[in-house]
Amino acid sequence: MTTLGIIGIGKWGQILLKEFSKNSNITNCVSKGNNQNKNWLKKRYPNIEFSTDYNSILKNTNIDGVIIATPIKTHFKLAYKALLAGKHVFVEKTIAEKSKEGKKLLELAKKNNLEIFVGYEFLYHSIFQKLKNINKNEKIIELKCDWYKFGSFNENIFYDLVSHFLSISIILFGVPNKMKIQEKISITTKCDISRLELKYNNKKVTIYVNRVSNSKRRIINIITDKNLYIWENEDLFKFYKSDYKKIKIKNTSPVENESKEFLKQIKNSNHDYKNAKNAISVLKLIESER
Questions:
Q1: C-alpha torsion angle, residues 57, 61, 63, 67 (rounded to 10)
Q2: Domains in the chain: boundaries
Q3: Rounded to 5 degrees, what angle do the CA atoms 61, 257, 173 make?
Q4: How far apart are CA 191 and CA 4, in angstroms?
Q5: Which residue from 3, 76, 122, 138 could staple onto 101, CB 3.0 to 4.6 Å apart?
Q6: pLDDT of 290
Q7: Is beta strand 204-210 parallel, antiparallel or unpaired with respect to 140-150?
Q8: pTM above 0.90, yes or no
Q9: Is residue 87 a contact partner of residue 114, using CB atoms and an 8 Å limit?
Q10: What whole-number distance in Å separates Cα of residue 49 and Cα of residue 198?
């Protein structure tokens, strides 16, 4: 079984730890030392060694890879150190703050024959896998993506939220010709509401993200050349005659799915790096409209 270390056990780090623990052996955890998080770890995973020193993971020859669940501004530095130390890397989105940093990580991973993998959970959602199959039989021609939530003010809205929809669009349609930001509204940070459009030759993607909403909802309207589907939160619906019919899908944990894919890529002698390349393309798009 693959042995991993994790850095960062805040809210999302705890989710990653839970899901990765199902299929790998996590022996070490590094965090700043928040007492609440330390107590959470001690109570639920008493056998995991805790430290505030990242080098305790990097120098441990028994550890094959590192899970990074820290603020985005730290991703490049932490991932680069891990790759230099000969560790495979799973890093939460975005891969870095700049595409050139993402490229450096990819180059280093290739040089050392290591996996660099970015956590875009919706790409490993069972509904997204269904959409990819739909796209083979009836071509998707338009996506209308909307996300309403409250919070995540400590991160850039494009890195933290918009990037999810960008990654989905790139996987389905490829890199667009252009990204046009149509609206940016500041409420508590520089941007808390944004509307944008991705321009393709014969496809269309519109994205709306509002993180100061008093309700929580994530919805993607999928228009094909034959039908209309709606991916709403954890459900997928198909328009049928004058109503919507829920499509039965065995919903598995997208985080567990992506963790399995990361572990699978570690074992591959030839890494395809498709995941990391997609993540770098997302950053390039964001940078194009700055």
A1: 40
A2: 3-119, 122-251
A3: 115
A4: 36
A5: 76
A6: 62
A7: parallel
A8: yes
A9: yes
A10: 45
Report the distance separating Cα 101 and Cα 280, nearest Å. Answer: 9
Task: Tell which residue, 91, 79, 75, has the closest CA to residue 262.
Answer: 91
pLDDT at 242: 85
- Residue 91 CA: distances (Å) to CA of 95, 103, 129, 198: 6, 14, 22, 26
Written as six digits, the tokens of 61 are 């020859």
Query: What pLDDT does 250 receive?
Result: 87
Cα of 20 vs its chain's centroid, Å:
15
Cβ–Cβ under 8 Å, residues 205 and 146: no
Q: Does domain 3-119 have CATH number 3.40.50.720?
A: yes
Cβ proximity of 216 and 150 under 8 Å? yes
What is the amino acid identity at position 158? F
Give domain 122-251's CATH superfamily.
Answer: Dihydrodipicolinate Reductase; domain 2 (3.30.360.10)
pLDDT digits (tens, 9 = 90+) for 187-215: 999 999 999 999 999 999 999 999 999 99
Asked if residues 191 and 209 have their Cβ atoms less than 8 Å apart, the reply is no
Element of type H or E holding 205: strand 204-210
Amino acid (1-letter code) at residue 208: Y
- Enclosing H/E stretch for 19: helix 11-20
Residue 85 has pLDDT above 90, yes or no: yes
Per-chain mean pLDDT for the chain: 96
Token representation of residue 98:
């700049």
Question: Which tokens is 180 given?
Answer: 């046009």
Token match 């993200």: residue?
A: 209
